[in-house]
Amino acid sequence: MQKRFALKCLVAASLVAASGLAAAQNVIKIANIVELSGGGASAGTNFKNGVELAVKEINAAGGILGKKIETVTSDTQTNPGVAKGLTQKAVDDDVFAIFGPVFSGSIMVSMAESRRAEVPNWTGGEAAAITAQGNPYVFRTAFGQNFSFPKLARYIGAKVKTLAVVYVNNDFGKGGLDAIKRELGKTQTKILAEISTDSGQVDFSSAVLKAKQSNADAVFVYTNEEESARALRELRKQGWTKPIIGETTLVGQKVIELAGEAANGAVAHVGLTVDAPKPEMLAFKAKYYQAYSSISDHNGIKGYTGVYVLKAAIEKAGKLDRKAVAQAMKGLTISAKKYPGVIMDVSFDQNGDLDRESFLVEVKNGRQIVVETLPALNPVAAAAPAKK
């Protein structure tokens, strides 16, 4: 009797386990490891929202290879150590892919874990060093500094003779400083001052004073978003009237809201903006606002397009195999006509860096206004049809 009962229990347990396995095989589990608190809360929240919006759309359309996507979201607290631990947990939970972190300092630490487990990892981080280490499992959802800064330097080189650089002293900021020095070295523009600031810095009076004392023709501000807003306010407070130039983080939606009128007149190169003159981008802007009652910044677009890139890579691989998907990303070119969710034609190189069109914007009356559309560095590849 006891043996028969034990046998029944064993069979029942086996059926439950098999059912669980079948359920697992019917979903594509991704971990959304992002900054939901701390200094990166705005960036991480937008990124998370973009990922979830894309997942909802893809699932409603039938999923990927007939499988629905399931997301699990974790907060890095804008702490690289926490990000590393959460990535380890995601690996232990056998996720198919990881999205995030957004901050360069965090992905630089955490991506060692996704690489070790051979889990594809999409990041919004922009530091050049992220893809310079030969990690075959890390891919960008935004420009790396080695793709954005050549465009930016061409603009600066044509506009100003001397420049003061205000940068944040972390992986992101130091990578940007190195990149702008390297690219401006190919132009006639001279850097007169390199002014280091701290992540989370509140008082920018000394940094701005140093920029003024350099007597440079313009200032280049390359810091995190909240710090960018503080720098803009201090520049205006001290009467700065010369050009203020930056990259995406200088003119993000959160920066414009925090800086108020002080943001007006700032010019930046941006890889992504919801105000880009693209029908797919304007459609995304409307969908995001309907879902979250707010306007997405570039981080929301990063998360959203990243999931559609995952979809294209899986469909190119033809199977739910992490190694095959990572390999499919190498040299992948995706057409927005075939995959509208990527919004703009995009291509990836062997390092996981992406290339596509981008924009020069100026903040006017509290809004990003696109003043010029810049071609991809490799226009032929970026405009090619999606590979199958």
Task: Sum this structure up briefly.
This protein is α/β, with parallel strands linked by helices. It is 45% helix and 19% strand.
Could you walk me through the main structural features you see in this protein, from its secondary elements to its overall organization?
Strands 7-6-8-9-10-14-15 form a seven-stranded mixed β-sheet, with helices on both faces. It has a five-stranded parallel β-sheet with strand order 2-1-3-4-5, with helices on both faces. A three-stranded antiparallel β-sheet has the order 11-12-13. It is globular, with a radius of gyration of 22 Å. Helix 2 (41-60) packs across helix 11 and helix 11 packs across helix 12 (322-329). The chain folds into two domains: 23-143 and 277-356, Rossmann fold; 146-270, Response regulator (Rossmann fold, 3-Layer(aba) Sandwich). Strand 12 (346-348) and strand 13 (354-355) form a beta hairpin. The protein has 13 helices and 15 strands. By secondary structure, it is of the alpha/beta class.
